[in-house]
Amino acid sequence: MTVPAAAPAGVLLMTYGSPSSLDDVGRYLTAVRGGRAPDEDLLAEFRRRYEVIGGSPLIERTIEQAGALERRLGAGHLVRAAMRFSEPSIETALAELAARGVRVVAAIILSPQYSPLLMGGYQRAVDSAVAALGEAAPRVTVAGAWGEEPAFVEAMADRILDGLARLDPVEADGDGAAPPRGGARSGLPTPVLLTAHSLPRRVADSEPEYIAQLRASAESIASTAGLSPERWTFCWQSAGHEPGEWMSPDFADLMPVLRDRGHDRVLVAPIQFLSDHLEVLYDVDIGAREQAERAELAFQRTTSLNVHPRFIEALASVVGRTTTVTV
Question: Which residue from 3, 175, 183, 264 lies 20 to 30 Å from 138 (Cα-Cα)?
Answer without folding.
Answer: 3
